[in-house]
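User: Hi! I have a protein structure encoded as tokens and I'd like to know what sequence might fold into it. I'm fairly new to this, so please keep things simple.
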């Protein structure tokens, strides 16, 4: 079994420093509305970034392997929280934006489908607790 370990240390007030397995660190903090000072990342927002990052790594790898002409791409994630505690994401929208003069829409659809349905473990986790909607946008520039 493959395991992952992180360490998160309280830095005072509502701020924490977290170390991931590569040794990189980042700050976590609550917003001012929740007693934090705003410096650092919000925990729930990091989950959305993790979703985009996981899928993005899949896309970058598959785009390279399939030798697709993509000059740039980005992933926008928007999520809705439940009203009751614990407040969790129950609806998530993931928008994939591809840029380039010669985009192969059929192959890019396949790339996204492979990430969403097969490779992205974070997407699989999100699907355990939220309705996930995916949309692809092609920008021929």
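Assistant: Happy to help. Inverse folding works backwards from shape to sequence: for each of the 141 positions I chose a residue that suits the local structure. Here it is:
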């Amino acid at each position: 079994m493959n395991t992952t370990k992180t360490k998160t240390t309280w830095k005072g007030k509502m701020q924490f420093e977290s170390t991931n397995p590569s040794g990189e660190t980042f700050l976590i903090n609550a917003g001012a509305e929740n007693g934090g000072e705003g410096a650092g990342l919000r925990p729930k927002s990091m989950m959305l970034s993790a979703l985009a990052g996981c899928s993005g790594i899949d896309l970058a790898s598959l785009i390279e392997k399939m030798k697709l002409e993509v000059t740039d791409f980005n992933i926008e994630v928007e999520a809705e929280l439940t009203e009751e505690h614990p407040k969790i994401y129950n609806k998530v929208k993931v928008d994939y934006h591809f840029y380039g003069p010669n985009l192969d829409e059929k192959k890019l659809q396949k790339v996204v489908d492979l990430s969403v349905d097969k490779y992205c473990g974070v997407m699989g986790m999100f699907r355990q607790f939220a309705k996930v909607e995916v949309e692809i946008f092609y920008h021929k520039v």
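A useful reference point when you look it over: The longest strand covers residues 89-99. Feel free to ask if any position seems puzzling.
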